[in-house]
C-alpha cells in the first residue's frame, strides 16, 4: 500500500488551559449591557460567574440555548472581557445591524479585543488616535488588487500549491499576494508565519482573560508562558519575519529612490501587486502611516488569510473522505474545466459543483458560531426599543442560522450540491463568495471579508489538485466529529483525534 500522508491539527498543551483557568477567576466582571436585554440564565453574580466559565469552554452550546429561547429577539451572554456579548436573533434586528454605519457600530474595537492588537503589537496603534488609518485603507486595497485583478495572482498561487503538494508541506498560496514570489517561497519566512499564527491564537486568547489594568505589567509574561516549550513563540517568530520584512523594505526603498522605479499602480501594472510593497510606498512617499503600522497590518493580514483557508480545507477534506459518492462528479468537473481553461479564474468559476460542495462544508462547519461582530461607538437604540450601552459587543448567531429550517430544507443533513440545486431553482446568492442573511461565514454588509474571492479561489485550486492526485481517507474513524468536545468561546476547535490521510492515486 502506498504511504499514507497524515494531515493533522496541533493540539494546545494542557498547561495552557491551566493558565487560562488561573487567570479567569480575577478577571470576572458582572457586565450587563442593558436591563432590557435578557440572559438565558439568571443574572446573579454566581450564575454570571458560571456562564463566563461555560462560555470559555463551550460557547456554541450557550449560543444555541439562548437562540432557542429568544429567536424572535435578542439576548446577552456574559464574557470574560469587560463587556457583555449581545446576540441578535430577529432577522429585522440583524438587517438593522447590517445597515448601521461605522460611526455607530464598528468591528474595529472587536478585532482589537479578539487579537489583543494594542497589547501584542506595540506601535500599530498611533498613540491617542484610535484605530490606525492603515487598517481602514487595507480592505479597499484588497478589493482593488486580489479581487479586481485576481487573474494576475492565479499562476503563482497555482504553482505554489503544486510545489507544496510535491512534498506535502502545506503552506498558503495567498502569501504571494502579500509579499511576492521570492519571500513567499522562503522556508524560514513561511515557518515563522505559521509559528506566529499558532502563537498568536494561544497568546491572544490567554491575554484576553487578563484584566486590562494588569496587561501592561503581566500581559507579556503570561503570553510567553502560554507558548513555553513550543515552537509557537510569537515574539521569536516575529523577529524572523521582521528580518525578512526589513530586507524586502530596503529593496523597495532602493528602487523608489533609484530614479528608475515608478510608484506602484493598482490598475496599470500587468503584474500582481505586492500588498506589502504598496503599503510601504504609501508610508515612504505619501507618509500616510508609519513603518510600524505597515508591519502590524501585514501580521494581521497573514493571520486572516491563512486561518480561514486552512480551516475551510480541513472541513472539506474530512467531509469528502466520508462521502466518496462526490468524488467522481467533482473529478470530472475539475478535468473538464482545467483541460479547457487551465488553473484560471474562469475555470474556478466554472466548477459549480465544487463551489457548492465547499459552501455546504462551510455552512455546516464554520470556524465560529458568531459572525458580523460590531461594537457600539455610542449608546445605540434599536428598533425594538432596547438601548445598548456604549461599548456593547453585538454579533449574529451565524452557526445557528446556517442550520435553521427557516432557511434550509433538512438543514442538518449534508447535501454537497445543495447550492447548485438552489441556483437552478432561481435562488440568488448561491455562490461560495456570495453574502446572504442565511450564509454569514464571510460576515455581512460593508465590513464583510474583502479577501473572500482570493480565499475561495485558493481553496478551489488546492482542493482540485489534491482530489486529482490523491485518494482522501480517514484511517482512524469515519464517524468522529470534525470539532472536539470543547470549544474556545464561540470558536469551534478541530477534533485533534481526527486524522486525514492522503494516498497517491
Automatic annotation (TrEMBL):
It is found in: Membrane. Keywords: Heme, Iron, Membrane, Metal-binding, Monooxygenase, Oxidoreductase, Transmembrane, Transmembrane helix. GO terms for molecular function: heme binding; iron ion binding; monooxygenase activity; oxidoreductase activity, acting on paired donors, with incorporation or reduction of molecular oxygen. The keyword Oxidoreductase applies. It holds the Pfam family p450. Its cofactor is heme. GO terms for biological process: mycotoxin biosynthetic process. Heme binds at residue 449. GO terms for cellular component: membrane. Transmembrane segments: none annotated. PROSITE patterns: CYTOCHROME_P450 (PS00086). SUPFAM superfamilies: Cytochrome P450. Gene3D superfamilies: Cytochrome P450 (1.10.630.10). Its main location: membrane. Belongs to the cytochrome P450 family. PANTHER family: CYTOCHROME P450, P450, PUTATIVE (EUROFUNG)-RELATED. This is Pc18g04730 protein. It comes from Penicillium rubens (strain ATCC 28089 / DSM 1075 / NRRL 1951 / Wisconsin 54-1255). The lineage of its organism: Eukaryota, Fungi, Dikarya, Ascomycota, Pezizomycotina.
Amino acid at each position: 500500500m502506498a504511504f499514507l500522508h497524515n494531515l493533522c491539527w496541533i493540539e494546545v498543551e494542557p498547561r495552557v488551559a491551566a493558565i487560562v483557568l488561573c487567570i479567569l477567576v480575577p478577571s470576572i466582571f458582572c457586565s450587563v449591557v442593558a436591563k432590557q436585554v435578557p440572559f438565558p440564565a439568571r443574572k446573579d453574580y454566581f450564575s454570571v460567574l458560571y456562564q463566563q466559565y461555560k462560555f470559555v469552554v463551550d460557547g456554541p452550546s450557550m449560543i444555541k440555548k439562548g437562540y432557542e429561547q429568544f429567536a424572535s429577539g435578542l439576548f446577552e451572554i456574559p464574557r470574560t472581557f469587560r463587556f457583555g456579548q449581545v446576540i441578535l436573533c430577529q432577522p429585522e434586528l440583524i438587517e438593522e445591524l447590517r445597515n448601521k454605519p461605522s460611526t455607530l457600530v464598528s468591528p474595529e474595537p472587536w478585532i482589537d479585543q479578539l487579537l489583543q492588537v494594542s497589547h501584542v503589537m506595540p506601535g500599530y496603534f498611533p498613540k491617542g488616535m484610535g484605530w490606525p488609518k492603515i487598517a481602514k485603507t487595507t480592505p479597499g486595497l484588497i478589493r482593488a488588487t486580489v479581487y479586481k485583478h485576481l487573474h494576475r495572482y492565479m499562476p503563482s498561487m497555482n504553482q505554489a500549491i503544486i510545489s507544496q503538494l510535491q512534498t506535502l508541506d502545506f503552506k498558503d498560496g495567498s502569501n504571494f499576494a502579500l509579499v511576492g514570489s521570492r519571500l513567499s517561497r522562503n522556508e524560514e519566512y513561511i515557518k515563522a508565519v505559521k509559528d506566529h499564527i499558532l502563537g498568536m491564537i494561544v497568546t491572544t486568547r490567554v491575554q484576553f482573560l487578563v484584566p486590562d489594568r494588569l496587561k501592561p505589567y503581566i500581559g507579556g509574561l503570561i503570553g510567553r508562558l502560554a507558548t513555553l516549550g513550543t515552537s509557537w513563540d510569537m515574539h521569536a517568530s516575529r523577529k524572523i519575519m521582521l528580518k525578512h520584512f526589513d530586507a524586502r523594505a530596503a529593496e523597495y526603498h532602493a528602487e523608489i529612490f533609484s530614479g528608475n522605479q515608478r510608484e506602484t499602480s493598482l490598475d496599470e501594472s500587468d503584474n500582481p501587486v505586492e500588498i506589502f510593497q504598496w503599503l510601504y510606498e504609501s508610508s515612504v512617499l505619501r507618509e500616510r502611516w508609519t513603518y510600524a503600522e505597515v508591519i502590524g497590518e501585514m501580521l494581521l493580514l497573514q493571520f486572516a488569510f491563512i486561518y480561514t483557508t486552512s480551516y475551510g480545507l480541513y472541513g472539506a477534506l474530512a467531509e469528502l473522505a466520508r462521502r466518496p459518492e462526490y468524488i467522481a462528479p467533482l473529478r470530472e468537473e475539475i478535468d473538464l474545466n482545467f483541460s479547457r481553461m487551465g488553473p484560471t479564474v474562469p475555470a474556478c468559476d466554472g466548477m459549480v459543483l465544487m463551489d457548492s460542495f465547499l459552501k455546504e462544508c462551510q455552512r455546516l462547519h464554520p470556524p465560529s458560531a458568531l459572525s458580523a461582530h460590531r461594537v457600539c461607538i455610542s449608546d445605540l437604540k434599536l428598533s425594538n426599543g432596547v438601548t445598548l450601552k456604549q461599548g456593547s459587543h453585538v454579533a449574529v448567531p451565524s452557526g445557528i442560522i446556517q442550520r435553521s429550517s427557516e432557511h434550509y430544507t433538512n438543514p442538518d443533513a449534508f447535501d454537497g450540491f445543495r447550492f447548485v440545486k438552489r441556483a437552478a431553482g432561481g435562488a440568488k446568492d448561491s455562490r461560495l463568495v456570495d453574502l446572504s442573511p442565511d450564509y454569514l461565514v464571510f460576515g455581512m454588509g460593508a465590513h464583510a471579508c474583502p479577501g473572500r474571492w482570493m480565499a475561495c479561489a485558493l481553496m478551489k485550486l488546492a482542493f482540485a489538485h489534491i482530489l486529482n492526485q490523491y485518494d482522501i481517507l480517514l484511517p482512524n474513524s469515519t464517524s468522529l466529529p470534525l470539532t472536539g468536545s470543547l470549544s474556545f468561546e464561540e470558536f469551534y476547535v478541530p477534533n485533534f483525534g481526527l486524522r486525514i490521510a492522503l494516498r497517491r492515486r
